[in-house]
Amino acid sequence: MRFGILGETRAWHGDGREVPLGGPARRALLALLLVRPGEVVSSDRLIDEIDPAGALSAHSLQSQVSRLRAALGAGAAIERAGAGYRIVADPDDVDAARFERLAGAGRMALADGDAGRAAALLREALELWRGPALADLPESDTARAAAARLEERRLTALEDRIEAGLRLGEHGAAVPELRELAGRHPLRERLAGLLMRALFAGGGQAEALVVFEETRRHLADELGADPSAELTALHRELLSADPAPAPAAPPAQLTNFVGRAGEVDEVAGLLRVARLVTLTGPGGVGKTRLSVEVADAEAAAGVCFVELAPLRDGAGLPQALLGALGLRENGLQMDGGARTPVDRLIAALADQVLLLVLDNCEHVIDDVATLAARLLATCPRLRVLATSREPLGIIGEHLFQVRPLDADAAVRLFTERAGAVRRGFTADPGLLRRICAALDDLPLAIELAAARSRTLDIDDLAGRLDDLLGVAARGNRTADERHRTLRSVVAWSWDLLSEPEQRAARRFTVFAGGATAESALRVCGTDGETLESLVDKSLLEFANGRYRMLETIRAYGAEQLDAAGERTSLRRAHAKRVLELVRTADPHLRRAEQLEWLPVVAAEHGDLVAALHWAVEEPEVRTAFELLASAFNYLWIRGASASAAPQATVLLAAVGEAIPDGLGEEYAACALLAASASASGDAGQRIWQRHRPVAAKALAAAWPGDRPGRYPVVLLLWMMRNAIGPDPEGAFALVSSQRDCAEPWAQAVAHYVSGFGHLGEGDSAAAEAAFREALRGFRSLGDRWGIALALDTLAGTASARGDRGRAVALTDEALALTERLGALEDSADLLVNRGDYRAAGDPAAARADYAQAAVLARRAGSSTYLAAALRGLGDIALEEGDLGEAERLYGEALDRIDPHWIKSLGPRLRTLIGLGRVADARGHDAEARERYREAAAAADGMGTPAREVLRILGLSEEVVDTALSAVSAR
Fold first, then answer.
1. Which burial class, exposed, middle or buried, applies to 470 when counting CB atoms under 10 A from its CB (0-12, 13-18, 19+)?
2. Quick one: pLDDT at residue 642?
3. Cα separation, 100 vs 154, whole angstroms
4. How far is CA 22 from CA 9, 27, 68, in A?
5. Of the residues 517, 755, 952, 953, which has the fewest C-beta atoms closer than 10 A?
6. Cα-flanking dihedrals φ and ψ of residue 403, to 5°?
7. Most distant CA pair in the chain, distance
């Protein structure tokens, strides 16, 4: 039998039939007994609280009990015990107890970083409520106290459920509910904080600040109090924070959407019942525009728009998705933990509610089909909307054929577009219908034709179009739909250009991702007036300071470039321009102006990849090496090394170990990029092992210590890549020898690396002095990443000497910098470190740090930092005596760790030690010794005594002694 007191008191048989309880006195009696099932409630209290007016006698109570027993039957027993009664029922059969159990489990899941499970548990708990708790006992003191407690738990569960939703990216849906709750509970600071976070996540930073001010005023007016430290800290973060990296929004449209409103509704309806919808149809029919409108309609649920047209092949597809999602391929400290970019995508999207729009799939159709199938299989809350000239051809795909416009819509589109370029445009509807029909009612063809009405009479326009299409109709009948329609329209539009306009347009096709005015002028050898004319004639678009060309026009223009015999010279000029841009930007990315220069270079990313492709394929060896080295810092900071790694690999294969004259440092940068293609795989290791010795000599020659090389960031990555390898001492000597180098960034890195050498020797004072000198150097340059790096190491030294408060303060400062840079992986790493510093004194705060780190790591798709967070949660479970949970968390962490990457060493050692302690606690001595032995062997591999390595990682002397004693006693 089940009972309900979360609302009116009710009871149900096991088959779901409701028990007729009778009048209010009997329901009140049952409710009082169910407040604490199994506990005795005295007769006097029952009499007083059922009827505070005193009309109920002991005899009447006994009568009510008898009638209630009869109603309940064998489903539940009401027993006489001493001077009172009790009901014999399993607490989980009472909705209040079941609610508290589910709410508690949901809160635990939330603390453990499993937001999806938390949301499900909390929704199940909250659905048990049917109204106010203990509604049949309005005058009972006992009921009022219990109801108040339950209502508080209900509100807390609501807060937890909303927080879980926010972690899953459901900030848009949460805002209205949070506003309503905050209005009913204006003094509840957690609700205010959640509302501020939800508003900020949706871009409403100003609204979030208003919420704080209103909450502060309510607290002051009603309680005479200030906001809590937590809410005040959140307010400070909002004042200083830049918006977090967000998924790419659909491109903004400058024109009205004509003729397809019903199709938007139809596609949106399909997406409610299907997780993969593909818009198919010929080029120019309007698939992209329809997908944009559908995406805008679905924006509240979360949308990411990925433009695939700039991709040359499917190899760059995962990186394109990572970039569109606002995720870097790795952090500023390289993360080798994710095995492939696809694994990172799966980790980032596993729990997200998102509509992923993949636009222009046809040229990479096989790769898109494979990736889409895998993402949909592993990310249950993901939906995909694709546009392509052909289906993806995978199970579960719903096709939506995008047809040409109907006759009226086509004429309306032509009229609107022509009216935009020619004031007062009017024309015979019949003539317009004939023009649109000749253009197959394709939106792009109509827009291009309408743009010509600026300078051509409508009758001339119709005559030219008819003649041209007549010639095209007698041409290649085997050409695809796009080439039998748009080729004719583009060719006609092209032929109306002047010779200087045609020359500029065909030369512009070398730009894969658009161009600034300066780049277009220099590469195309044209003038500003010609570029403006091409914009007027719809051959180019201009937005956000960049010129762009529609892909259909670009494809036609590229053919004209080939026909003119200009491809090689223009590709060379394009690569030279890209090299100039990244070379100019490189030093600024290590200075205070890095936030201004990063988006400048990021806007050129598509052209950088295109220039690399050409230089490697041509081959222009010198240009290729210089492009890779000049872009090295940018690729690292933005986590985009995988986009250049394939070209670096091909280039190394072409030159082997023979370094071109004067390009030794560039060769080393190329080797590092090639190795990053598969940091945890055999391919990357083989590339690295083959080219590392030659690259080491070249890098040492470029950085002798008394004069600087050209690419100082290569030095630090060289040290990180060699820290676990055949010659860590040589890499350490090379980098630390730059302390007197004329390059200030190299000096700061040399001090930073030297600090680890002192730590290995057990000289913590010298190490701290070196890290402080590195911090001074990075601060003088304004390099936020370098500052965060040095602060993190200083926090570690402070913790080692027992100053945990200082360690937390330094880590907080570093976190503020990484969050400003949008470095999710680095923020996760710092949160784990802060959790380690807090664990001994404040395990609840440590658990929260580990849980938040896990959330960030999952968003970034970073296995390394997720493993570190799971290890921390395992430590908490171990200290609480939950051996099963600790073992599960440690095991999951160990599975995610890459043993070949330096950033994984600490998490791996601490995880192995944790598993040894679990085995110890269970009395499994042999298993414990084996785990301790693995940890000691890995620590010894660092070239520093295992005891010192374990101390540096922050393990207590007791734990270190236990581990090493077990190993020596074997």
1. exposed
2. 77
3. 9
4. 11, 7, 8
5. 517
6. -90, 160
7. 110
Question: What are the DSSP E strand ranges found in 665-819?
Answer: none
CA distance readout (Å), 361 to 367, 368, 385: 9, 7, 11
Instruction: Label residue 465 by pLDDT band (50, 70, 90).
Output: low
Q: The tokens of 474 are what?
A: 């007698």
Cβ atoms within 10 Å, residue 846: 24
SS (H, E, C) 444-500: HHHHHHHHHCCCCCHHHHHHHHHHHHHHHHCCCCCCCHHHHHHHHHHHHHHHCCCHH
**Cis, peptide link before residue 619, omega less than 30° from 0:** yes
Distance CA 42, CA 61 (A): 11
CA angle 854, 856, 859 (to 5 degrees): 110
**Nearest residue to 652 (alpha-carbon basis) of 680, 694, 610:** 694
pLDDT tens track for 664-713: 999 999 999 988 754 445 676 788 889 999 999 999 999 998 899 999 99
Contact 88, 79 (CB under 8 A): yes
- The two three-digit tokens of residue 801, written as one number: 């000497």
Q: Which of 726, 716, 784 is nearest to 756 (CA)?
A: 716
Cα radius of gyration (the chain): 34
Amino acid at 118: A
- Calculate the CA 390 to chain-centre distance: 30
Query: For the range 459-465, what are the long-range contacts, defined as Cβ-Cβ under 8 Å and sequence gap of 24 or more?
Result: 459/431, 461/435, 462/431, 462/434, 462/435, 462/438, 464/492, 465/435, 465/438, 465/439, 465/492
Token pair listed for 655 = 């030159």
CA distance 429 to 414: 10
pLDDT per residue as tens digits for the range 25-54: 888 888 889 888 888 888 888 888 887 767
Q: Taking the complete model, does pTM exceed 0.85, yes or no?
A: no
Q: Identify residue 592 by its one-letter amino acid code.
A: A
Cβ-contact 400, 280 below 8 angstroms: yes
Helix or strand holding residue 810 (H, E): helix 804-821
| 3-class DSSP state of 77 | strand
Work out whether strand 77-81 and strand 84-88 pair parallel, antiparallel, or are unpaired.
Answer: antiparallel
Question: Is residue 293 within 8 Å of residue 257, measured between CB atoms?
Answer: yes
Give the pLDDT of residue 684: 67
pLDDT per position as a tens digit, 724-746:
777 888 999 999 999 989 999 99
Q: What is the DSSP string of 823-851?
A: -HHHHHHHHHHHHHHHTTT-HHHHHHHHH
Closest CA to 373 of 391, 360, 389, 390: 391
Q: Which one, of 731, 725, 791, 790, lies nearest residue 757 by Cα?
A: 731
Contacts of 457 (CB under 8 A, 6+ apart): none
- How far is 9 from 30, CA to CA, in rounded Å? 8
Q: Which two tokens stand for residue 412?
A: 């309306």
Backbone conformation region of residue 146, classed left if phi is above 0, alpha if psi is from -120 to 50, else beta = alpha
Residue 4 DSSP label: E
Distance CA 1, CA 88 (A): 11
CB 531 within 8 A of CB 507: no
> What are the angstrom distances between the C-alpha of 339 and each of 352, 682, 889?
21, 11, 20
**Taking a C-beta distance cutoff of 8 angstroms, is the pair 340, 290 a contact?**
no
d(CA 487, CA 497): 16
Q: Please, which pLDDT band fits residue 632 given cuts at 50, 70 and 90?
A: very high
Phi then psi for 863, rounded to 5 degrees? Answer: -70, -40
Determine whether 313 is exposed, middle or buried from the number of CB atoms within 10 Å of its CB (0-12, 13-18, 19+): exposed
pLDDT band at 942 (very low <50, low <70, confident <90, very high): low
